[in-house]
Amino acid sequence: MTQDRKTLSRRRFLQTTALGAAAGAGVLNAPAVLRAQGAPVKVGILHPVSGALSYSGQQGRIGAQLAVEEINAAGGIKSLGGAKIEAVLGDAQSTPDGGNAEVEKMNAAGVAAVVGGYASGICLAASQTAARYDLPYIVDVGVVDSIVTRGLKNTFRFGPGFGVIAKTAIDNLVAINEQAGKPASTVMIVHEDSAFGAGLARLLNAQLPERGFKLLETISHPTPTRDFNNVALKIRANNPDIVIPANYYNEYVLLARTMQQQKIRPKGIYSVLGGAASSYKFVKEFPEAAQYIMDCNHWFDPKNAKALALKKKIEDRNEFYTYEVYMNYSCVLLLADALERAGSADRAKIIAALESSTFAGHTMPYGPTKFVNGQNQGAAPVNTQVLNKDIQVILPAAFASAKAVFPMPPA
Questions:
Q1: What is the dihedral of CA 266, 221, 394, 305, to 10 degrees?
Q2: Tens digits of per-residue pLDDT, 156-170?
Q3: pLDDT, tens digit, 9 for 90 and up, residues 326-364
Q4: In CA terms, which of 32, 183, 327, 395 is 20 to 30 Å from 164?
Q5: What is the largest CA-CA distance in the chain?
């Protein structure tokens, strides 16, 4: 038999037997299978890294990228053959429209999910845009509750929202005040005027009087604001026992410094989601203005070894360990866990995996992750206070590292 006839006979044999067909398919498709197993999973990382919110956005990006680096270094997504996560970075430019534009780009780039947003306005808009493409969206910080009450099946918020934070903040303020003998009875609120600050102010205005506090005045301001002298004059004229700021980092720092410079010293500065009150950057750069400020906010678990190791890693890079860092770090880990359990980068399967999540490998003082209508039921804020150039947890007791100092001692 000639070589040509041998080849022809073998070809016919392969084509006319099931075993041959399977073997032939395996040979033909092997390169494609190998490529599929190692294909990276694209993930959109969305933050406002330019504009008025750029500092917080850059911090969020640091946390997300660090999580991506660690996941890839540990072997990637095992159920996808060790697929690496490929970060697709987006700049929302501190506006909802900027967030929308970046989500459109990310969808066109074929991302499997999006993490971030930071500001409530950006998260509201970007998650809505993502919903048009059934694109899973994990909110890092945005606290407006309508983010998760609109019925969007693609949207999941890892941290607590307004309702939980406001109730916790007021409960803790009442407890701190009662423990000190009720020295405080009057309040002023200073808030930024976007969805975040205005929404929180409405909740506080509704709930504080019910808990025995008299609201003297509520002052709103835009972001950015470059001068708080007039606001400080109003605070001086009203002479409240407690000032409650709710604004972003730059405005918070400027307000606190203006009050310090004008020697306005209420019994307490009690922040609710204060943009700088729980920030090591603020404490380091302006320790006198920061001293004794209390805050009900996102925070890491000070008794969690993973959280402390992450803190060291961030500080070794000469960066500040802010809530944007560890919340985004945890959100990317949450997504990786969903990818692992889904065993797929298919968007519908990722959404299903998030819906059934019990992820507990985060750095937060939370219970296991459980999403109900997109909101993590395990999420909760804590109360912090700046004491001796450091930030301590004062409530809840299970995570506390110090006791509250209230009222503030005389200057």
A1: -150
A2: 999 999 999 999 999
A3: 999 999 999 999 999 999 999 999 999 999 999 999 999
A4: 183
A5: 109
Mapping DSSP to helix (H, G, I), strand (E, B) and coil, where does residue 264 land? coil
Contact 200, 194 (CB under 8 A): no
Query: 120-131 and 96-108 helices cross at what angle (nearest 10)?
Result: 30
Task: Please enumerate in sequence order all residues whose Cβ is within 8 A of that of 381, keeping only pairs 6 or more positions apart, or say none.
Answer: 160, 164, 165, 168, 169, 296, 297, 298, 299
- Smallest Cα–Cα separation from 143: which of 218, 204, 197? 197
3-class secondary structure for 222-263?
Answer: CCCCCCCHHHHHHHHHHCCCEEEEECCHHHHHHHHHHHHHCC
Mean pLDDT of 82-93: 98
Cβ 143 vs Cβ 123: under 8 Å: no
Distance CA 193, CA 247 (A): 9
Cα separation, 114 vs 88, whole angstroms: 9
Scanning the structure block, which residue is given the tokens 């890092």?
140
CA distance 349 to 92: 27
Compute the distance between CA of residue 245 and CA of residue 250 in angstroms, rounded to an integer: 12
CA atoms 359, 345, 99, 46: torsion sign: positive
In this structure, what token pair is assigned to residue 401? 């590292």
Residue among 162, 391, 150, 401 at smallest CA distance from 276: 391
Predicted pLDDT at 341: 98
* Cα separation, 146 vs 318, whole angstroms: 36
Task: Note the pLDDT tens digit of each residue in 162-212.
Answer: 999 999 999 999 999 999 999 999 999 999 999 999 999 999 999 999 999
Residues paired with residue 360 on neighbouring β-strands, in sequence order: none
Give the pLDDT confidence of 44-72 residue by residue, as tens digits: 999 999 999 999 999 999 999 999 999 99
Please report the domains of the chain, with CATH numbers, ordered by start residue.
41-159+302-380 (3.40.50.2300), 163-297+383-399 (3.40.50.2300)
Residue 392's Cα: distance from chain center in Å? 20
Both ends of the chain: CA-CA distance in Å? 105
Q: What is the pTM of this model?
A: 0.88
pLDDT digits (tens, 9 = 90+) for 275-314: 899 999 999 999 999 999 999 999 999 999 999 999 999 9
**Who's near 58: CB < 8 A, 6+ residues apart?**
47, 49
Q: Which residue has the tokens 């808009």?
A: 125
| 332/75 Cα distance (integer angstroms) | 15
